Amino acid sequence: MQELSVYLMAAVPFFILSAIISKMGNLTLARCIYLIIFNLGVALTASFVGKAGSAEFILLFSVGLPFVWFSFRRERFLIGFFSGMSLIFWFLLYFTNFDLFTTVHMDAEKSGMYIYPISILTTIVLVTFQLIYFSYINNGFYSKIHDQREEAIEESNAKSKFLSMMSHEIRTPLNAITGLSHILGDSNPREDQKENIDALNYSGKILLNLLNNVLDFSKMESTKIELDPIPTNIMAAVRQIKKIHEPSCLRKGITMELEIDEELPNVWLDIVRFNQVINNLISNAIKFTDKGSVTLKIVKQEESNGTVLMRTEILDTGIGIYKEQQEKIWQAFTQASSSTNRLYGGTGLGLPIVKSIVQAMGSMVKVESDPGKGSRFYFDLELKLASSGELDQIIHKKVHDLKGKKILLVEDNLINVMVAKQILEKANLVVDVAYNGQNAVDMVQENNFDTVLMDIQMPVMDGYTASREIRKFNSTLPILALSASVFLEVKNKILQSGMNGFIFKPFDPENLLNRIEEVLDN
Protein backbone atom coordinates (compact mmCIF):
# COMPACT_ATOMS: atom_id res chain seq x y z
CA MET A 1 0.00 0.00 0.00
CA GLN A 2 2.96 2.30 0.67
CA GLU A 3 4.36 1.62 -2.81
CA LEU A 4 0.90 2.27 -4.32
CA SER A 5 0.64 5.53 -2.39
CA VAL A 6 4.01 6.66 -3.81
CA TYR A 7 2.85 5.92 -7.37
CA LEU A 8 -0.47 7.73 -6.87
CA MET A 9 1.22 10.74 -5.24
CA ALA A 10 3.55 10.92 -8.26
CA ALA A 11 0.45 11.22 -10.49
CA VAL A 12 -0.89 14.27 -8.58
CA PRO A 13 1.39 16.84 -10.34
CA PHE A 14 0.14 15.56 -13.70
CA PHE A 15 -3.49 16.12 -12.65
CA ILE A 16 -2.54 19.63 -11.52
CA LEU A 17 -0.74 20.18 -14.84
CA SER A 18 -3.87 19.02 -16.66
CA ALA A 19 -5.98 21.54 -14.73
CA ILE A 20 -3.54 24.37 -15.50
CA ILE A 21 -3.45 23.56 -19.23
CA SER A 22 -7.26 23.34 -19.25
CA LYS A 23 -7.45 26.77 -17.58
CA MET A 24 -5.17 28.14 -20.30
CA GLY A 25 -7.71 26.99 -22.90
CA ASN A 26 -6.05 23.93 -24.44
CA LEU A 27 -8.77 21.45 -23.50
CA THR A 28 -7.67 18.69 -25.89
CA LEU A 29 -4.14 18.41 -24.48
CA ALA A 30 -5.43 18.70 -20.89
CA ARG A 31 -7.92 15.88 -21.44
CA CYS A 32 -5.30 13.66 -23.09
CA ILE A 33 -2.95 14.04 -20.09
CA TYR A 34 -5.83 13.41 -17.69
CA LEU A 35 -7.00 10.25 -19.47
CA ILE A 36 -3.49 8.77 -19.68
CA ILE A 37 -2.79 9.34 -15.96
CA PHE A 38 -6.30 8.23 -14.95
CA ASN A 39 -6.08 4.94 -16.91
CA LEU A 40 -2.59 4.24 -15.56
CA GLY A 41 -3.77 5.05 -12.04
CA VAL A 42 -6.77 2.69 -12.19
CA ALA A 43 -4.73 -0.14 -13.78
CA LEU A 44 -1.94 0.34 -11.21
CA THR A 45 -4.39 0.33 -8.29
CA ALA A 46 -6.15 -2.78 -9.65
CA SER A 47 -2.82 -4.57 -10.01
CA PHE A 48 -1.80 -3.80 -6.39
CA VAL A 49 -5.12 -4.57 -4.70
CA GLY A 50 -5.63 -7.74 -6.79
CA LYS A 51 -8.64 -9.38 -8.37
CA ALA A 52 -10.68 -9.43 -5.15
CA GLY A 53 -10.74 -5.62 -4.99
CA SER A 54 -12.43 -5.23 -8.42
CA ALA A 55 -10.81 -1.82 -8.80
CA GLU A 56 -10.52 -2.52 -12.55
CA PHE A 57 -14.29 -1.90 -12.87
CA ILE A 58 -13.59 1.83 -12.62
CA LEU A 59 -12.14 1.45 -16.15
CA LEU A 60 -15.80 1.10 -17.24
CA PHE A 61 -16.17 4.80 -16.52
CA SER A 62 -12.90 5.51 -18.32
CA VAL A 63 -14.08 3.69 -21.47
CA GLY A 64 -17.02 6.07 -21.88
CA LEU A 65 -15.24 9.29 -20.87
CA PRO A 66 -13.72 10.09 -24.32
CA PHE A 67 -17.22 10.03 -25.87
CA VAL A 68 -18.22 12.87 -23.55
CA TRP A 69 -15.05 14.90 -23.91
CA PHE A 70 -14.13 14.73 -27.58
CA SER A 71 -15.96 15.65 -30.78
CA PHE A 72 -16.90 12.55 -32.74
CA ARG A 73 -16.74 14.53 -35.97
CA ARG A 74 -13.35 16.19 -35.47
CA GLU A 75 -11.55 14.03 -32.84
CA ARG A 76 -12.75 10.55 -33.72
CA PHE A 77 -9.20 9.18 -33.46
CA LEU A 78 -8.84 10.35 -29.85
CA ILE A 79 -12.14 8.74 -28.87
CA GLY A 80 -11.04 5.40 -30.32
CA PHE A 81 -7.52 5.68 -28.90
CA PHE A 82 -8.47 6.42 -25.28
CA SER A 83 -11.44 4.03 -25.18
CA GLY A 84 -9.11 1.37 -26.58
CA MET A 85 -6.46 2.23 -23.94
CA SER A 86 -8.95 1.50 -21.13
CA LEU A 87 -9.94 -1.81 -22.69
CA ILE A 88 -6.30 -2.81 -23.25
CA PHE A 89 -5.45 -2.20 -19.57
CA TRP A 90 -8.52 -4.21 -18.60
CA PHE A 91 -7.52 -7.20 -20.78
CA LEU A 92 -3.86 -7.01 -19.65
CA LEU A 93 -4.94 -7.15 -16.01
CA TYR A 94 -7.14 -10.17 -16.72
CA PHE A 95 -4.60 -12.12 -18.77
CA THR A 96 -1.71 -11.42 -16.37
CA ASN A 97 -3.83 -12.40 -13.38
CA PHE A 98 -3.41 -8.83 -12.09
CA ASP A 99 0.42 -9.12 -12.14
CA LEU A 100 0.63 -6.26 -14.63
CA PHE A 101 2.62 -3.87 -12.41
CA THR A 102 3.43 -6.02 -9.35
CA THR A 103 3.38 -9.64 -8.30
CA VAL A 104 2.79 -8.75 -4.63
CA HIS A 105 -0.92 -8.13 -4.03
CA MET A 106 -2.95 -6.98 -1.06
CA ASP A 107 -4.44 -9.66 1.16
CA ALA A 108 -7.44 -11.03 -0.77
CA GLU A 109 -9.70 -11.13 2.31
CA LYS A 110 -8.99 -7.52 3.26
CA SER A 111 -9.23 -6.47 -0.37
CA GLY A 112 -12.65 -8.11 -0.72
CA MET A 113 -13.88 -6.68 2.59
CA TYR A 114 -12.73 -3.07 2.25
CA ILE A 115 -11.63 -2.25 -1.32
CA TYR A 116 -14.35 -4.19 -3.18
CA PRO A 117 -17.35 -2.18 -1.79
CA ILE A 118 -15.50 1.09 -2.42
CA SER A 119 -14.62 0.05 -6.01
CA ILE A 120 -18.14 -1.09 -6.87
CA LEU A 121 -19.77 1.97 -5.24
CA THR A 122 -17.33 4.29 -7.02
CA THR A 123 -18.00 2.57 -10.39
CA ILE A 124 -21.79 2.79 -9.89
CA VAL A 125 -21.60 6.49 -8.98
CA LEU A 126 -19.27 7.37 -11.85
CA VAL A 127 -21.17 5.37 -14.50
CA THR A 128 -24.54 6.68 -13.24
CA PHE A 129 -23.21 10.22 -13.49
CA GLN A 130 -21.91 9.45 -16.95
CA LEU A 131 -25.27 8.08 -18.14
CA ILE A 132 -27.13 11.06 -16.71
CA TYR A 133 -24.69 13.44 -18.35
CA PHE A 134 -25.00 11.57 -21.67
CA SER A 135 -28.79 11.90 -21.43
CA TYR A 136 -28.47 15.60 -20.64
CA ILE A 137 -26.20 16.16 -23.67
CA ASN A 138 -28.50 14.14 -25.95
CA ASN A 139 -31.62 15.98 -24.79
CA GLY A 140 -29.89 19.30 -25.43
CA PHE A 141 -28.71 18.08 -28.84
CA TYR A 142 -32.16 16.86 -29.94
CA SER A 143 -33.79 19.96 -28.52
CA LYS A 144 -31.42 22.02 -30.64
CA ILE A 145 -32.21 19.87 -33.68
CA HIS A 146 -35.94 20.34 -33.03
CA ASP A 147 -35.52 24.11 -32.79
CA GLN A 148 -33.44 24.16 -35.96
CA ARG A 149 -36.04 22.01 -37.70
CA GLU A 150 -38.82 24.40 -36.67
CA GLU A 151 -36.76 27.35 -37.90
CA ALA A 152 -36.09 25.54 -41.19
CA ILE A 153 -39.83 24.84 -41.61
CA GLU A 154 -40.66 28.48 -40.89
CA GLU A 155 -38.04 29.64 -43.40
CA SER A 156 -39.32 27.16 -45.98
CA ASN A 157 -42.90 28.34 -45.43
CA ALA A 158 -41.79 31.96 -45.73
CA LYS A 159 -39.98 31.14 -48.98
CA SER A 160 -43.05 29.33 -50.33
CA LYS A 161 -45.32 32.23 -49.38
CA PHE A 162 -42.96 34.70 -51.03
CA LEU A 163 -42.66 32.63 -54.21
CA SER A 164 -46.42 32.06 -54.26
CA MET A 165 -47.05 35.79 -53.89
CA MET A 166 -44.50 36.67 -56.58
CA SER A 167 -45.95 33.99 -58.84
CA HIS A 168 -49.41 35.48 -58.41
CA GLU A 169 -48.26 39.07 -58.91
CA ILE A 170 -46.30 38.25 -62.10
CA ARG A 171 -48.69 35.71 -63.59
CA THR A 172 -51.73 37.99 -63.26
CA PRO A 173 -50.50 40.65 -65.76
CA LEU A 174 -48.84 37.90 -67.80
CA ASN A 175 -52.27 36.32 -68.14
CA ALA A 176 -53.47 39.56 -69.76
CA ILE A 177 -50.52 39.56 -72.20
CA THR A 178 -51.06 35.99 -73.39
CA GLY A 179 -54.84 36.39 -73.37
CA LEU A 180 -54.82 39.58 -75.42
CA SER A 181 -52.33 38.14 -77.92
CA HIS A 182 -54.70 35.18 -78.37
CA ILE A 183 -57.66 37.52 -78.88
CA LEU A 184 -55.69 39.56 -81.43
CA GLY A 185 -54.64 36.42 -83.28
CA ASP A 186 -58.25 35.18 -83.29
CA SER A 187 -59.66 38.44 -84.70
CA ASN A 188 -58.70 37.93 -88.35
CA PRO A 189 -55.52 40.04 -88.29
CA ARG A 190 -53.79 41.15 -91.48
CA GLU A 191 -51.03 38.90 -92.77
CA ASP A 192 -48.37 41.46 -91.81
CA GLN A 193 -49.74 41.45 -88.23
CA LYS A 194 -49.87 37.69 -87.70
CA GLU A 195 -46.13 37.26 -87.28
CA ASN A 196 -45.95 40.10 -84.74
CA ILE A 197 -48.89 38.67 -82.80
CA ASP A 198 -47.22 35.25 -82.78
CA ALA A 199 -44.03 36.87 -81.52
CA LEU A 200 -45.99 38.68 -78.79
CA ASN A 201 -47.61 35.44 -77.72
CA TYR A 202 -44.26 33.65 -77.76
CA SER A 203 -42.64 36.47 -75.76
CA GLY A 204 -45.29 35.98 -73.10
CA LYS A 205 -44.35 32.33 -72.97
CA ILE A 206 -40.66 33.24 -72.68
CA LEU A 207 -41.49 35.51 -69.75
CA LEU A 208 -43.45 32.66 -68.23
CA ASN A 209 -40.39 30.41 -68.67
CA LEU A 210 -38.23 32.91 -66.80
CA LEU A 211 -40.71 32.87 -63.95
CA ASN A 212 -40.75 29.07 -64.07
CA ASN A 213 -36.94 29.09 -63.73
CA VAL A 214 -37.27 30.54 -60.24
CA LEU A 215 -40.10 28.22 -59.30
CA ASP A 216 -38.34 25.20 -60.79
CA PHE A 217 -35.20 25.94 -58.78
CA SER A 218 -37.22 26.02 -55.57
CA LYS A 219 -38.69 22.61 -56.39
CA MET A 220 -36.06 20.72 -58.36
CA GLU A 221 -34.03 19.46 -55.36
CA SER A 222 -37.04 18.22 -53.42
CA THR A 223 -39.31 16.99 -56.20
CA LYS A 224 -38.86 15.51 -59.65
CA ILE A 225 -39.50 17.70 -62.69
CA GLU A 226 -42.62 16.35 -64.40
CA LEU A 227 -42.76 16.17 -68.19
CA ASP A 228 -45.86 16.52 -70.37
CA PRO A 229 -44.91 15.25 -73.85
CA ILE A 230 -47.23 16.07 -76.77
CA PRO A 231 -46.97 15.42 -80.54
CA THR A 232 -44.61 18.13 -81.81
CA ASN A 233 -43.29 19.44 -85.10
CA ILE A 234 -39.81 20.68 -84.12
CA MET A 235 -39.49 23.07 -87.04
CA ALA A 236 -42.82 24.74 -86.26
CA ALA A 237 -42.14 24.74 -82.50
CA VAL A 238 -38.84 26.65 -82.71
CA ARG A 239 -39.60 28.94 -85.67
CA GLN A 240 -40.21 31.91 -83.37
CA ILE A 241 -36.93 31.52 -81.49
CA LYS A 242 -34.93 33.52 -84.00
CA LYS A 243 -37.51 36.31 -84.08
CA ILE A 244 -37.50 36.53 -80.28
CA HIS A 245 -33.72 36.61 -79.81
CA GLU A 246 -32.64 38.39 -82.99
CA PRO A 247 -33.25 41.93 -81.62
CA SER A 248 -30.77 41.22 -78.79
CA CYS A 249 -28.23 39.97 -81.34
CA LEU A 250 -28.70 43.05 -83.56
CA ARG A 251 -28.12 45.36 -80.60
CA LYS A 252 -24.77 43.62 -79.97
CA GLY A 253 -23.82 43.43 -83.65
CA ILE A 254 -23.83 39.62 -83.81
CA THR A 255 -25.87 37.24 -85.97
CA MET A 256 -28.42 34.63 -84.94
CA GLU A 257 -28.44 31.43 -87.03
CA LEU A 258 -30.89 28.53 -87.11
CA GLU A 259 -29.87 25.17 -88.57
CA ILE A 260 -32.88 22.85 -88.25
CA ASP A 261 -32.74 19.49 -90.00
CA GLU A 262 -35.60 19.38 -92.50
CA GLU A 263 -35.74 15.59 -92.18
CA LEU A 264 -36.75 15.73 -88.52
CA PRO A 265 -39.98 13.72 -88.04
CA ASN A 266 -42.83 14.59 -85.70
CA VAL A 267 -42.02 13.47 -82.15
CA TRP A 268 -43.51 13.21 -78.68
CA LEU A 269 -41.83 15.99 -76.68
CA ASP A 270 -42.55 18.33 -73.76
CA ILE A 271 -42.14 21.36 -75.98
CA VAL A 272 -42.58 23.85 -73.10
CA ARG A 273 -39.64 22.34 -71.20
CA PHE A 274 -37.63 21.91 -74.40
CA ASN A 275 -38.11 25.60 -75.25
CA GLN A 276 -37.19 26.51 -71.69
CA VAL A 277 -33.87 24.71 -72.15
CA ILE A 278 -33.24 26.26 -75.58
CA ASN A 279 -34.09 29.78 -74.47
CA ASN A 280 -31.88 29.55 -71.38
CA LEU A 281 -28.93 28.34 -73.46
CA ILE A 282 -29.46 30.90 -76.26
CA SER A 283 -29.88 33.76 -73.78
CA ASN A 284 -26.60 32.71 -72.14
CA ALA A 285 -24.84 32.48 -75.49
CA ILE A 286 -25.99 35.96 -76.53
CA LYS A 287 -25.01 37.39 -73.15
CA PHE A 288 -21.42 36.16 -73.41
CA THR A 289 -20.89 36.84 -77.13
CA ASP A 290 -19.79 40.29 -78.28
CA LYS A 291 -18.78 39.46 -81.86
CA GLY A 292 -19.50 36.70 -84.32
CA SER A 293 -22.64 34.58 -84.05
CA VAL A 294 -24.94 32.40 -81.98
CA THR A 295 -26.27 29.25 -83.66
CA LEU A 296 -29.08 26.86 -82.75
CA LYS A 297 -28.58 23.52 -84.47
CA ILE A 298 -31.04 20.60 -84.27
CA VAL A 299 -30.26 17.50 -86.33
CA LYS A 300 -31.55 13.95 -86.66
CA GLN A 301 -28.80 11.42 -85.90
CA GLU A 302 -30.61 8.13 -86.37
CA GLU A 303 -34.12 6.73 -86.57
CA SER A 304 -35.18 3.18 -85.69
CA ASN A 305 -37.93 1.12 -84.03
CA GLY A 306 -40.38 4.00 -83.70
CA THR A 307 -37.85 6.38 -82.09
CA VAL A 308 -35.48 9.08 -83.30
CA LEU A 309 -32.21 10.26 -81.76
CA MET A 310 -32.08 14.06 -82.01
CA ARG A 311 -29.09 16.24 -81.17
CA THR A 312 -29.56 19.85 -80.08
CA GLU A 313 -26.57 22.21 -80.09
CA ILE A 314 -26.12 25.86 -79.15
CA LEU A 315 -22.85 27.28 -80.46
CA ASP A 316 -21.40 30.74 -79.90
CA THR A 317 -18.20 32.66 -80.61
CA GLY A 318 -18.12 34.31 -77.19
CA ILE A 319 -15.69 34.51 -74.28
CA GLY A 320 -15.58 30.76 -73.66
CA ILE A 321 -15.10 28.89 -70.39
CA TYR A 322 -11.84 27.61 -68.89
CA LYS A 323 -11.65 23.83 -68.39
CA GLU A 324 -11.39 24.06 -64.60
CA GLN A 325 -14.53 26.24 -64.48
CA GLN A 326 -16.75 24.02 -66.62
CA GLU A 327 -17.99 21.96 -63.66
CA LYS A 328 -18.68 25.06 -61.59
CA ILE A 329 -21.20 26.59 -64.03
CA TRP A 330 -23.79 23.87 -63.26
CA GLN A 331 -24.02 24.92 -59.61
CA ALA A 332 -26.92 27.15 -58.58
CA PHE A 333 -26.23 30.89 -58.13
CA THR A 334 -22.72 30.32 -59.50
CA GLN A 335 -20.94 31.67 -62.56
CA ALA A 336 -17.57 30.84 -64.04
CA SER A 337 -15.89 33.67 -62.12
CA SER A 338 -16.73 36.74 -60.04
CA SER A 339 -15.68 38.98 -62.92
CA THR A 340 -18.25 37.24 -65.14
CA ASN A 341 -21.02 38.22 -62.74
CA ARG A 342 -19.80 41.83 -62.54
CA LEU A 343 -19.52 42.23 -66.32
CA TYR A 344 -22.52 40.26 -67.52
CA GLY A 345 -24.90 39.95 -64.55
CA GLY A 346 -27.39 37.10 -64.23
CA THR A 347 -28.74 34.94 -61.41
CA GLY A 348 -26.75 31.77 -62.11
CA LEU A 349 -29.99 29.72 -62.19
CA GLY A 350 -30.28 29.10 -65.94
CA LEU A 351 -27.75 26.29 -66.39
CA PRO A 352 -28.67 24.30 -63.23
CA ILE A 353 -32.30 24.29 -64.44
CA VAL A 354 -31.20 23.30 -67.96
CA LYS A 355 -29.25 20.40 -66.44
CA SER A 356 -32.25 19.26 -64.34
CA ILE A 357 -34.72 19.40 -67.25
CA VAL A 358 -32.40 17.57 -69.66
CA GLN A 359 -31.77 14.89 -67.00
CA ALA A 360 -35.55 14.53 -66.55
CA MET A 361 -35.72 13.96 -70.33
CA GLY A 362 -33.23 11.10 -69.95
CA SER A 363 -30.09 12.79 -71.23
CA MET A 364 -27.07 14.84 -70.15
CA VAL A 365 -26.14 18.32 -71.34
CA LYS A 366 -22.45 18.63 -72.19
CA VAL A 367 -20.15 21.56 -72.89
CA GLU A 368 -17.06 22.05 -75.02
CA SER A 369 -15.35 25.42 -74.79
CA ASP A 370 -12.13 27.26 -75.56
CA PRO A 371 -11.45 30.58 -73.81
CA GLY A 372 -11.67 33.42 -76.32
CA LYS A 373 -13.07 31.17 -79.06
CA GLY A 374 -16.57 30.27 -77.90
CA SER A 375 -18.65 27.46 -76.42
CA ARG A 376 -20.76 24.53 -77.58
CA PHE A 377 -23.55 23.17 -75.39
CA TYR A 378 -25.23 20.03 -76.69
CA PHE A 379 -27.44 17.11 -75.66
CA ASP A 380 -29.07 14.10 -77.34
CA LEU A 381 -32.71 13.11 -76.86
CA GLU A 382 -34.22 9.78 -77.81
CA LEU A 383 -37.83 10.60 -78.67
CA LYS A 384 -40.83 8.53 -79.64
CA LEU A 385 -42.15 9.21 -83.16
CA ALA A 386 -45.56 10.89 -83.49
CA SER A 387 -47.93 10.33 -86.40
CA SER A 388 -49.42 13.13 -88.52
CA GLY A 389 -52.84 12.25 -87.14
CA GLU A 390 -51.68 12.68 -83.54
CA LEU A 391 -50.13 16.03 -84.43
CA ASP A 392 -53.32 17.17 -86.18
CA GLN A 393 -55.32 16.48 -83.02
CA ILE A 394 -53.08 18.91 -81.15
CA ILE A 395 -52.99 21.59 -83.85
CA HIS A 396 -56.63 21.71 -84.87
CA LYS A 397 -58.89 23.56 -82.50
CA LYS A 398 -61.67 21.61 -80.89
CA VAL A 399 -65.22 22.79 -81.62
CA HIS A 400 -66.79 23.63 -78.26
CA ASP A 401 -70.50 23.17 -77.60
CA LEU A 402 -70.99 25.83 -74.91
CA LYS A 403 -73.70 28.01 -76.43
CA GLY A 404 -76.11 29.43 -73.86
CA LYS A 405 -74.23 28.07 -70.84
CA LYS A 406 -74.12 30.60 -68.02
CA ILE A 407 -70.82 31.14 -66.23
CA LEU A 408 -69.84 33.29 -63.25
CA LEU A 409 -66.37 34.83 -63.54
CA VAL A 410 -65.02 35.82 -60.11
CA GLU A 411 -62.00 38.10 -60.67
CA ASP A 412 -60.89 41.41 -59.17
CA ASN A 413 -58.39 42.41 -61.88
CA LEU A 414 -60.22 44.50 -64.50
CA ILE A 415 -57.80 43.68 -67.34
CA ASN A 416 -58.13 39.96 -66.67
CA VAL A 417 -61.92 40.36 -66.55
CA MET A 418 -61.81 42.02 -69.98
CA VAL A 419 -59.58 39.29 -71.44
CA ALA A 420 -61.49 36.36 -69.93
CA LYS A 421 -64.88 37.81 -70.94
CA GLN A 422 -63.82 38.15 -74.56
CA ILE A 423 -62.49 34.58 -74.67
CA LEU A 424 -65.58 33.13 -72.97
CA GLU A 425 -68.13 35.17 -74.91
CA LYS A 426 -66.42 34.24 -78.19
CA ALA A 427 -67.21 30.61 -77.24
CA ASN A 428 -70.92 31.65 -76.88
CA LEU A 429 -70.91 31.53 -73.08
CA VAL A 430 -73.09 33.94 -71.09
CA VAL A 431 -70.75 35.62 -68.61
CA ASP A 432 -71.57 37.41 -65.35
CA VAL A 433 -68.79 38.97 -63.27
CA ALA A 434 -68.23 39.14 -59.50
CA TYR A 435 -65.32 41.26 -58.26
CA ASN A 436 -64.83 39.58 -54.87
CA GLY A 437 -65.72 36.40 -53.04
CA GLN A 438 -68.64 37.79 -51.06
CA ASN A 439 -70.18 39.19 -54.24
CA ALA A 440 -69.79 35.71 -55.81
CA VAL A 441 -71.57 33.96 -52.90
CA ASP A 442 -74.50 36.41 -53.13
CA MET A 443 -74.80 36.01 -56.92
CA VAL A 444 -74.77 32.19 -56.74
CA GLN A 445 -77.59 32.34 -54.16
CA GLU A 446 -79.71 34.58 -56.41
CA ASN A 447 -78.96 33.07 -59.86
CA ASN A 448 -78.51 29.76 -61.63
CA PHE A 449 -75.05 29.26 -63.10
CA ASP A 450 -73.66 26.29 -64.97
CA THR A 451 -70.15 26.79 -63.58
CA VAL A 452 -67.99 29.26 -61.64
CA LEU A 453 -64.44 30.43 -62.45
CA MET A 454 -63.06 31.46 -59.06
CA ASP A 455 -59.96 33.60 -58.56
CA ILE A 456 -58.07 32.76 -55.36
CA GLN A 457 -56.64 36.04 -54.07
CA MET A 458 -59.31 38.75 -53.86
CA PRO A 459 -60.36 41.54 -51.49
CA VAL A 460 -63.31 41.23 -49.02
CA MET A 461 -63.39 37.40 -49.29
CA ASP A 462 -60.86 35.11 -50.97
CA GLY A 463 -61.70 32.24 -53.31
CA TYR A 464 -61.19 29.50 -50.71
CA THR A 465 -63.68 31.03 -48.26
CA ALA A 466 -66.16 31.86 -51.02
CA SER A 467 -66.10 28.25 -52.26
CA ARG A 468 -66.67 26.88 -48.76
CA GLU A 469 -69.62 29.28 -48.31
CA ILE A 470 -71.14 28.21 -51.64
CA ARG A 471 -70.78 24.54 -50.72
CA LYS A 472 -72.96 25.14 -47.65
CA PHE A 473 -76.02 25.59 -49.88
CA ASN A 474 -74.94 24.19 -53.27
CA SER A 475 -72.89 21.00 -53.45
CA THR A 476 -73.24 20.30 -57.20
CA LEU A 477 -72.24 23.57 -58.91
CA PRO A 478 -68.84 23.09 -60.66
CA ILE A 479 -66.24 25.55 -59.35
CA LEU A 480 -62.87 25.90 -61.11
CA ALA A 481 -60.08 27.84 -59.42
CA LEU A 482 -58.17 30.43 -61.44
CA SER A 483 -54.85 30.22 -59.65
CA ALA A 484 -51.61 32.10 -60.34
CA SER A 485 -49.76 29.81 -57.92
CA VAL A 486 -48.39 26.40 -58.93
CA PHE A 487 -47.40 25.21 -55.44
CA LEU A 488 -48.64 21.86 -54.18
CA GLU A 489 -50.01 23.32 -50.93
CA VAL A 490 -52.17 25.74 -52.97
CA LYS A 491 -53.48 22.86 -55.12
CA ASN A 492 -54.35 20.88 -51.98
CA LYS A 493 -56.08 23.89 -50.40
CA ILE A 494 -58.11 24.43 -53.58
CA LEU A 495 -59.47 20.87 -53.46
CA GLN A 496 -60.03 20.98 -49.69
CA SER A 497 -62.19 24.10 -50.04
CA GLY A 498 -64.68 22.24 -52.25
CA MET A 499 -63.58 23.29 -55.73
CA ASN A 500 -63.64 20.79 -58.60
CA GLY A 501 -60.23 21.65 -60.08
CA PHE A 502 -57.91 24.46 -61.08
CA ILE A 503 -56.65 26.35 -64.13
CA PHE A 504 -53.29 28.06 -63.86
CA LYS A 505 -52.72 31.64 -64.92
CA PRO A 506 -51.68 32.55 -67.49
CA PHE A 507 -54.13 30.09 -69.03
CA ASP A 508 -54.22 28.83 -72.57
CA PRO A 509 -57.68 29.75 -73.95
CA GLU A 510 -58.15 26.31 -75.50
CA ASN A 511 -57.27 24.59 -72.23
CA LEU A 512 -59.67 26.89 -70.36
CA LEU A 513 -62.58 26.04 -72.67
CA ASN A 514 -61.70 22.34 -72.63
CA ARG A 515 -61.69 22.34 -68.83
CA ILE A 516 -65.03 24.16 -68.64
CA GLU A 517 -66.58 21.69 -71.10
CA GLU A 518 -65.17 18.79 -69.12
CA VAL A 519 -66.75 19.84 -65.79
CA LEU A 520 -70.04 20.68 -67.51
CA ASP A 521 -70.19 17.20 -69.07
CA ASN A 522 -69.49 15.58 -65.71
From TrEMBL:
Record has Metal-binding as a keyword: no
- All copies of the Response regulatory domain together span 406-520
User: Which residues in this protein are found as 4-aspartylphosphate?
Assistant: 455
Report the InterPro entries cross-referenced here: CheY-like_superfamily (IPR011006), HATPase_C_sf (IPR036890), HATPase_dom (IPR003594), His_kinase_dom (IPR005467), HisK_dim/P_dom (IPR003661), HisK_dim/P_sf (IPR036097), Sig_transdc_His_kin-like_C (IPR004358), Sig_transdc_resp-reg_receiver (IPR001789)
Q: Which PROSITE patterns match?
A: HIS_KIN (PS50109), RESPONSE_REGULATORY (PS50110)
What sequence ranges are listed for the domain Histidine kinase? Answer: 165-385
Q: Does the keyword Endoplasmic reticulum apply?
A: no
The catalytic activity, as recorded, is: ATP + protein L-histidine = ADP + protein N-phospho-L-histidine
Under SUPFAM superfamilies, the record lists: ATPase domain of HSP90 chaperone/DNA topoisomerase II/histidine kinase, CheY-like, Homodimeric domain of signal transducing histidine kinase
Specify one Pfam family. Response_reg
Q: What class of enzyme is it?
A: transferase
Q: What is its EC number?
A: 2.7.13.3
Can you name this protein? Answer: histidine kinase
Organism of derivation:
Arenibacter arenosicollis
